[in-house]
Amino acid sequence: MSILSSMRYCLDRSESYGNVYAALAFIPFGLFFDFMDGKVARWRGKSSLMGQELDSLADLISFGVAPAACAFALGLRTPLDTFFLSFFVLCGLTRLARFNVTVSSLPKDNSGKSKYFEGTPIPTSLGIVSCMAWCVRRGLVEGGSQGVIGGTWATGLGMEFHPIVGVFVAHGCAMVSKSIHIPKP
After folding, report:
1. pLDDT the model gives residue 37
2. Is 158 helix (H, G, I), strand (E, B) or coil?
């Protein structure tokens, strides 16, 4: 729903931010459903490789593709912006694939759960989502009262980009980092 709301916002050139607020509001529901599917699987005592892969796919769409689509809708649309947003999504894919492959080799606690996340978990992109909502509220988006936060750099050189896209690049790098270990709750 978030991705479709982002598309609807791009197509609707009105002054209303309703579709983009909807796009941003749908993303946290992914966290709720991610939490609940794991709880239900543990409660039923059933899990499968197929369920694990579908969970990762849902995480990639909810916390990787949807935030990137929202950023695109809000004005990060130059070729370099889209390259960096794609980098962010691919970092999320890499992080989830590595987790699925290495989960059995990570140190476990007494309950059998991994002790830590290697790299930041992809749901931490909700921080970026909340920042985008703040930018919409302040009019710091394309077509807003103040334009995209940070403006556009390298205009006219064929390599223009919005420096705020660096937040997505940094978050992507943090997701695939092997040196960042975040304890699991």
Report:
1. 82
2. coil
